[in-house]
Structures are given as structure tokens and as C-alpha cells.
Amino acid sequence: MEVAVLGLGEAGGRLAADLGAAGCTVRGWDPVRRPEGIANAESDRAAVAGADVVLSVNAAAVAHAVADGVAGALAGTTLYADLNTASPQLKRELAEALPAQFVDVALLGAVPSLGLATPALASGEGARHFADLFRPLGMPVEVVGPLPGDAAGLKLLRSVFMKGMAAAAIESVEAARAAGAEERVRADIAAVIGEPLLERLLSGSRTHAARRLDEMRAAAAFVRELGVEPRVATAAAAWLADLDADEPVRLERPE
User: Fold this and answer.
1) What is the DSSP string of 174-238?
2) pLDDT of 163 over the 80 cut
3) What element of type H or E holds 122?
4) Where are the beta strands (DSSP E) in the chain?
5) CA dist., res. 135 & res. 122, Å (int)
6) Cβ-contact 91, 152 below 8 angstroms
7) pTM
8) How many whole angstroms separate alpha carbon 152 and alpha carbon 73?
9) Is the distance from CB of 155 to CB of 132 less than 8 angstroms?
10) How far apart are CA 167 and CA 224, in angstroms?
11) Which of 79-88, 113-122, 131-140, 199-208 has the lowest mean pLDDT?
12) Over the stretch 68-78, which tens digit does the pLDDT of each residue have?
């Protein structure tokens, strides 16, 4: 199987490496990153030319631009998988704009750690095709709906909880620091959710603040569309906006 991976950050780079190890022919494209061990194409269009599957692993903010950039080089038989965490509406727009079979894929885990073993939801015209191709490679793929956006919507609803929990942890630790009780409160939280998850929530929120901010804004809009006031999603987005602006919030464990 020939696979083009558009976007070679932490997630895309790990997926590309795993696909190569699984025996796929992989061509990557990223205008900035050039990870070692991954064959880099001369351009995005060169990466997708002749590919059986295209994986777009970028930020939602550039998903349209990435798709527009390669649309003219896609074959009608190509499976275009958008793995970006985006709104259901954006996924539907991509499906309508691309001259290829489209699948909306939502990844439900830490891709840099899990790689192809990351659980995924898939929806849209190409969902079953994607599942048939990637399950044998070790990816647990669940087909959740016939329409592009079905998978994206389910992930956003999950994200309200996950990123909301991260925002609660950040706020609790910050307030505890101000009260001179940081170690005690961190220990109390870790006793409930575990130190590894707590550290992931705190440090990951800063490292991926910009991408998660887009995610939570999309989540808030989706929750509102469903007739629910997005109080938690909005609060989580506010914390991420502060972190993205490099506000002086110290989240690492004190010495």
C-alpha cells in the first residue's frame, strides 16, 4: 500500500514511521519538518501522486488549505483520510470539495506514544475502506456513521470532558500554589487520576495549547449547536488561550 502523509509533526511523523515499519511505501510532506527515516517528497502534490491513501495530519486551521493544495493530484480511487480534530461542518466541506473517496477519522489517544495502535473512529463514504486497510496494520478502527463529521462530532464531545478535566487540574494547581498548598493538592489529584495522567494534562496543555484551543472552540460551537450551553468547553478554551499567549502560568512540578 502506498501512503502519503501530509504533516510530519509528532503525530504524523509517528504514523509515517509505523506505516513504513509495517511494509507500506510512505511518502511524507511537511513544509517545515523533515523527520529522519521518512521519505520526503518534493512537494505535497508529489507526495499524493499515485498514493492509495492520503493521511492529512495537520491542524484544523489548515485542513482546507492542505486539501486544496493536493486536490488536483488525487486519483478518483484515492482514499483521503482527514485525521485533524475539527468541526463536523469542516469535515463535510472537505468531503464535498475533494475529488476522491473521503473518510473522517478521529484519533482517540496519544498518537506520539501509540502510533498505529491509536484507537480511531471513522465515518463517511470511505470509512469501511479505511477500516479494512488499517485494522490489519494494528489500528483499532470503529466505523461510527455514514456521514463525514460523525466521527469528528463524537471526538469533540469526548474532548469536552478530557480538556475540561485538564482545565480543572490547571486551575486547581494554580490556586493551590497561591495558597501554598501545591504539593498537597497535586497529591490529592494524583491519588484520583494517577500522576502520569495529571502530568500529561498539565504539561500537554501548554505544549499543544494552540491546537487544543482550536479544538475546544470547535467543541464549544458544536455543543451549542446541539442546544447545550458549552460552559466547560468555553472555560477550557479560555485556559488554553492564556497558555497559547504564553501567560506566566507555571505548570511543571516544582523542584
Assistant:
1) HHHHHTT-HHHHHHHHHHHH-HHHHHHHHHHHHHTHHHHHHHHHHHHHHHHHTT---HHHHHHHH
2) yes
3) strand 120-123
4) 2-6, 25-29, 53-56, 79-82, 101-107, 120-123, 141-145
5) 12
6) yes
7) 0.89
8) 26
9) no
10) 19
11) 199-208
12) 999 999 999 99
- What is the per-residue pLDDT across 17-34, written as a single tens digit (0 to 9) for each? 999 999 999 999 998 888
H or E, element range at 248: none
Residue 243's H or E segment, with its range, is: helix 231-244
Amino acid of residue 171: E
Q: Cell triple for residue 146? A: 455514514
Q: What pLDDT, on a 0 to 100 scale, did the predictor assign at position 255?
A: 37
Sort 157 into a burial class: Cβ within 10 Å, 0-12 / 13-18 / 19+. middle
Beta-bridge partners for 107:
120
Average pLDDT over residues 151-171: 96
pLDDT of residue 49 exceeding 50: yes
- The chain-wide mean pLDDT, for the chain, equals 93
Domains of the chain: 2-147 (3.40.50.720), 153-244 (1.10.1040.10)
